[in-house]
Write the structure tokens for this entry.
Amino acid sequence: MIRRTQRLKKEYLYRKSLEGKERVNYENKRKIREALQEGKPIPTELRNVEAQLRREIDLEDENTAVPRTHIDDEYAFAAEKDPKILLTTSRNPTAPLQRFVKELSIVFPNAQRMNRGNQVVSEIIESCRSHDFTDVILVHEHRGVPDGLIVSHLPYGPTAYFGLLNVVTRHEIQDKEAVKTMPEAYPHIILDNFNTKLGERTATILKYLFPVPKPDTKRIITFANKSDYISFRHHIHEKQGGPKSVTLKEIGPRFELRLYQIKLGTVDQAEAQTEWVIRPYMNTTRKRKFLSN
């Protein structure tokens, strides 16, 4: 198993190292296509490789014309099987954190909750790889209040680090009649206001935590971005007065997420490259929104 993991990691790093060469090759092909379509002469710097590039252009189709990246490899098989998630906490969790993680295990379908104990992160990640888990979610706290959430996609990454704010569990919602038994059907996902490239990246990480639902499911999970704060809401809808009368009922929990880092690797890899991280000076820039326009 250790040899297989090392081999897969080397193959992933090798494919990642080829991205720069493939991007240059793609740009050269694009220049040749434009020159041929517009009837212009081939650029001077490309005349030595024109014949080879034109043969490659003739063999390309819609799937091979655009170069693939390591981001495509990360979620290449996400649509072929349902996600399998492991939920755990920091060491010595308090009762509020354990209650919150228990509710998250029902929010995410096919999630399994594990007591952390004395296990280190590298052991958890290695065990999850060997048991075909697709994601690991770690929830942290400060003085009994959940304040951090880490989503690490397996086997290659990425790993997203979120801050947790304004956590309200199902037990703390005032309307006790509306909060009934939480359904376990696969939910519909609403991703609102993720317009930028970083926003689309964040939406992809969140989207693939959930399997494909059935069309008639009544369960709805919303990730709504506003000023880089992602609001999580959990509802069920009922048609009480006919098809045109739809009632939403919040069943909890609810919380806010604030993205502050994305790494191109799993959570146990300290040497993983940082894709994006928020810096102190970013809070004073004129454009403070990074997930939306």
